[in-house]
Amino acid sequence: MSNTARAHKPSRTNQDRAAQEREVRHNARIFDKLLPQLLEQNLKGYYALMHKGKIEATLKDFNDAMIMGNRVFGGKPFSVQPITDESANLGFYSYR
Fold it and tell me: Could you give the 3-state DSSP secondary structure of residue 51?
């Protein structure tokens, strides 16, 4: 196997990025509706691992949520949402 073959990783296409963005937006809309219930369940400070509009897991650590998402969903789009009652200022966009 040549060095080039070992070092090559497939790049994400614009279509892949667009699919990821759609997934994140879809998950965020559903998450906003579910957030009051999650807070009532004392999950503040946890992270929701979401895929196709469903919360698949809640984890205490962001990195654990990302690792689980990559393991479970592989290259398929997913998102990780922080469960908090505070808004996050992300410049032009603000998210809860």
Answer: strand
- Asked if 59 and 68 count as a contact pair (C-beta separation under 8 A), the reply is yes
Q: What is the pLDDT of residue 93?
A: 43
Cα gap 1→8, rounded to integer Å? 11
Token digits for 96?
């809860």
Task: Confirm if 85 and 39 have CB atoms less than 8 A apart.
Answer: yes
Which class for 26: exposed (0-12), middle (13-18), buried (19 or more C-beta within 10 A)?
middle
Flag whether the pTM goes above 0.85.
no
